[in-house]
From TrEMBL:
Keywords: ATP-binding, Nucleotide-binding. SUPFAM superfamilies: C-terminal effector domain of the bipartite response regulators, P-loop containing nucleoside triphosphate hydrolases. The keyword ATP-binding applies. SMART domains: HTH_LUXR. The lineage of its organism: Bacteria, Bacillati, Actinomycetota, Actinomycetes, Cryptosporangiales. This is LuxR family transcriptional regulator. It comes from the Bacteria. The keyword ATP-binding applies. InterPro entries: AAA_16 (IPR041664), P-loop_NTPase (IPR027417), Sig_transdc_resp-reg_C-effctor (IPR016032), Tscrpt_reg_LuxR_C (IPR000792), WH-like_DNA-bd_sf (IPR036388). Pfam families: AAA_16, GerE. It comes from Cryptosporangium minutisporangium.
Amino acid sequence: MALWGRDAEQAELDSVLASLGDGLSRALVLRGEAGIGKTALLDYVASAADSEVRVLRVAGVEEETDFPFAALHRMLIPFFDLRDRLPALQRDALLVACGLADGPPADRHLVSLAALALLAEAASDGPLLCCIDDAQWLDADSVVAFAFVARRVHAESIGLVFAVRTGTPFTALDGLPCVDLEGLSDAAAGQVLRAVVPGALDRRVADQIVRATGGNPLALSDLGAELTADQLRGGRQLPEPLPIGTRLEAHYRRQVDALPEDTRTWLLLAAAEPTGHFGRINAAAAALGLPADAPEPAEAARLASITTEVRFRHPLVRSAVYSGAPPADRRAAHRALASATTAASEADRRAWHLAAAALGPDGAVADELERCAERAAARGGYAARVSFLARAAELTVDDRQRARRSVVAAQAAVTAGAPLQARTLLDGLDPAWLDDVDRGRALIARAYAGITMGDGAVADAAAMCLAAAEAFGERAPDLARLALFRAVQWAINAEHLLRGTTVTAMADAILAHPWPDPLIESRDLLAVGFATVAAHGYEQGAPLLARGVEALLAEGTTDAQHLEQWVVAVTACMIRRDYVSADAVERRAIDVARRTGALWELDVALYTYSMANTELGRLDVAEQLVIEGHQIRSALGATAEQWEVYQHPELLAWRASAEYLPQRLEAIADASVPLGHGAVVRIARFAEALLALGTGRYPEACTTLRRLIDGDELCVHTRVLADLVEAAIRSGDRVLAERALAMLDTRASAAGTPWMECLFIRSRALLTHGDVAEDCYREAVDRLTRTEARLDLARAHLLYGEWLRREKRRRDARDQLRSAVALFEDIGAAAFAERARRELAATGETAQRGPEPQRSALTPQEATIAALARDGATNAEIAATLFLSASTVDYHLRKVFRKLEVTSRRQLRQAYPD
């Protein structure tokens, strides 16, 4: 099948088919205006596929956008007999999402992974080509799944070709390989026109039509068929303007208007029924008294084709039929379709038709739509839930009930990743309609909508949560306590960018709240603990935080509770230097997020865990976690701002000695400020201080670190106190060093953790002399050796060696400095390794630079897969971990084996050690 003037586009599609033949996967988006030839290109690639390629086609239908996972279900129907090959969680999530089983609401990303796995299983029997037309009209839940699959396919022999109309606010596929379709060249357009004109065609008329249509193939073919012979020969003037572009729909409308009334009514029924189900349309037609031959004139006019389903010649025909009909006729059509939609499994579709048929508020229909919303939520169809609830609100008679439904719809919109829709729903509310509880819910929804939109609302979120807690009050005490906890969470995130409240005001509100006595819930302990730190000091708040973490880690904490609280709990651990508890909290957060498909939570958990490993000196582990997060953000289609924010400043500072690093750290901070992520800004500043410490620029480090400590009301920067002691004493500011040491002493005593005590002892050595100093250095080295904190151990060796050299004990200094160099080089801390080598050289010993770490021949993804395989994970387990298919894992693992010259996982453990 050849297409005039589409050689380049056909070549792109041919390359998709060639990839399938090579056992690889490809995704491609065809983007262009209506009639430009997208469907024809899908027809081309479907017909050009080899006989062993199984072709699947599905098209978005504008009227079906409110039905959860509708398009995904249609695509996967042929493969449900393979469902038992999927991991149980994925299988169950997919079946629930498609309405084939009951169960807890499925996370949409877990459904997406299940769709990828199912298609990969199907492709193991032969290549698959999935053609998705009119993607802009897919239901939102299916779009998420299709986009996820398109970003994760690699070695499964799966091709996905999407056709998307321009001029619609559709961005779900952004970032995928894309071909923007333009009009045909004049020569190709002339060929199309001559092919459809049965008689003579004047050259000047042809040129005029080609110019007017801009080479749009559909407009060319329609005009060639519809203009009279006289007009085409040049004997009569062409109509002005020609029916092209936005006027093409009006052209179809004129064709529809010329049909008999019964045919127009029948077409309206077909346009109003998104499934195109001929039996249902015919039943509705019978209810309206239409004759059996009513659709025949529409078929004769080539406006629609009828088999077991009705298909319009082009979506613009459907649009022309539906939008051109009077509102009363549309309502009558929907009433008839509702009467014909009687199966229990079609309850949602019946309710949708009834809603479209409603002239004004209708309490019974609104109630049914609310039940539809809950059924959608039970399947994980949060986008559909929003649509049902929003329409239910419109049809609700009582103002307060209408407001409540709008608030619940806004909450669902936030969950569905539609923050702008959430704001729109909330902006339409009259505050007088809201009771206190709904007002609190609306505030929380508005806060989270802003956070999701990334417009700086993180800075405002704590204040909005405090206002929500006040609104909930005694009427909803659990919601009030949750809102106060969230206020703490977002205050920690916003730090110095906090707006609308202060840490002091937040602490006062939390401590004034009537909490249960005694405090036993982890969430409550963490909230009150941080408020106590802010109001009364670290030493009073730290024990509460320790109890909160202990309660969270206790048996009986649900997965949902852990995902809700883990971020605050990790902060509570790290300000006490409790790496054992932090590790337990983060590992469970990663496990829960991975099992349930909560990818955004998993991304944050991996980032946070990489920070914890960086602080301990496990830089290789941290880098692997960063790579895994990279995989997830790629699957989710992260924005450029998110990529910048999720760089790891501290890891960069330890690793790099390059001159460009300060500019990179500044870029991270600059990207974080508009989003309100003050914590990321502060991490970038700490990274700058680390780089300054490593290169001996102590006054610069001192200034930066002091700024971090000043105004740190929640004590989240407790960890920098030891660095501040070092920077201040080396800068000659003993007063500041002593103040920082006193703070560290108080907090180490309150925390009672080995790491904090070691940092205090090491820092005390810097401010003492003689035997006392040496005893402190020795004790710090000895005790840090028994912890996991390798970076701080290396720094203890370095500081001790530097002190010994200044005490003229060069031989003793060399022992410590050699240990420091070896540790820093083994860790990969470039700047500090160089500082230790300079000190060692100053003792008179030639400082031998260690061998440059060998760069792995493996790509980052291959390295991650190799590490997981080395540690015993199966291909299926690796696939679930990295949100890939098992086929792609196998493909990369075979490349790993070739590069490392091994043939088995056992050999891999030797060739690719920890």
